């Protein structure tokens, strides 16, 4: 059986979410229809919004449903006109939509806020960068998807507010694990917390102007017939995570156990506050893809630190921003844990990793 340690890529759908989705799929009607079935769908949509708002401790009126985390980020990034500042470790969904060129060396439309060796944004530099900016639009994520490093978003929010700016926090990885931070825009995604992919929300302070125009759904903030089965799954998953809020705390113990078992690995971001669910580990001298293939054969599913799409591996901009060389960044893999991960999973994964490291060391000798 596969030991799934790739929860940061996507979490298995929670049984409660699957059940809620099946019910909504069977009782499907358009929430905008005026007949009884449509009214029932609207009532259900309102109820899901309330449950999600309660799980995230915000008023329901602040929840705007979207088609996932990427769309929520795009909606936030489309607001306002001030100059943009984005942290160097943002997800590509922010970098691409904020105008940071994803090609190395190319100049983009957003200024990049540097991070230290542990991947934490440099607050002094940020303060200087926005010192003369008029209504700066700043994006700093809550927790990083490659390293789990948690950013000091409360301090960032204070600096941004002092300049009359707005703050977007990508909380896709932290939602369901940590309390959501206070910001003008907070993006969340259902599939990282046990809901289905393709559903998310932007938590807004003020109403936003729709990017996707059409019908007046989401009080005119996001057009398109609501994905009620997906939203029902999102609500069930968010409620399940909120009902067991100790799970993320327990994950820290498993993370420490994992790191103790990865003897000889370099843990990136180790000195910073981190999620209990993500470990970015480098094995000196061994390419991430080689590690992934060995672990896959041993039944352990993990990801590369470097972004991989269409068969091409790019150096991780996150690890590069933390000062790693291309070679060191290319040796990092990500283990990510979830609410059903057990100590036995961790022990089996570390045993497989140690066997791999020993085999590769013998082969290289
Ligand atoms: N932001 C972060 C930090 C992520 O990890 C992801 C998904 O990998 C996204 C945004 C995009 O979310 P979605 O897959 O829901 O579009």
Main traits of this protein?
alpha/beta, Aspartate Aminotransferase, domain 1, Aspartate Aminotransferase, domain 2, seven-stranded mixed sheet, 12 helices
Folded structure, characterized:
It is a single chain. With 365 residues, the chain is of the alpha/beta class. It contains twelve helices and 15 strands. The chain has two domains: 3-12 and 245-364, Aspartate Aminotransferase, domain 1 (Alpha-Beta Complex); 15-243, Type I PLP-dependent aspartate aminotransferase-like (Major domain) (Aspartate Aminotransferase, domain 2, 3-Layer(aba) Sandwich), CATH 3.40.640.10. The chain has helices at residues 15-26, 36-56, 69-77, 92-98, 123-130, 153-162, 228-243, 247-261, 288-297, 317-321, 326-329, 343-364, and strands spanning 3-4, 63-66, 84-87, 111-113, 137-139, 166-170, 185-189, 200-204, 266-267, 278-282, 300-301, 303-304, 308-309, 312-313, 332-336. Strand 3, helix 4 and strand 4 (111-113) form a beta-alpha-beta unit. It is globular, with a radius of gyration of 21 Å. The structure holds pyridoxal-5'-phosphate (PLP). The site of pyridoxal-5'-phosphate (PLP) has 13 residues, from helix 3. Pyridoxal-5'-phosphate (PLP) is lined by residues 68-70, 91, 93, 141, 145, 170, 172-173, 189, 191, 200.
Helices, by number, come to: 12
Shape: globular
In angstroms, what separates the terminal alpha carbons? 32 Å
Report the CATH C-level class of the largest domain.
Answer: Alpha Beta
Q: How many domains is the backbone divided into? A: 2
Tell me how many strands there are: 15
Looking at the overall shape, the CATH architecture of the largest domain is 3-Layer(aba) Sandwich
Output the CATH homologous superfamily of the largest domain: Type I PLP-dependent aspartate aminotransferase-like (Major domain)
Secondary-structure-based class equals alpha/beta
- What fraction of the residues are assigned to beta strands by DSSP? 5-15%
From the 3D structure, determine the CATH topology of the largest domain.
Answer: Aspartate Aminotransferase, domain 2
Mean pLDDT: 95
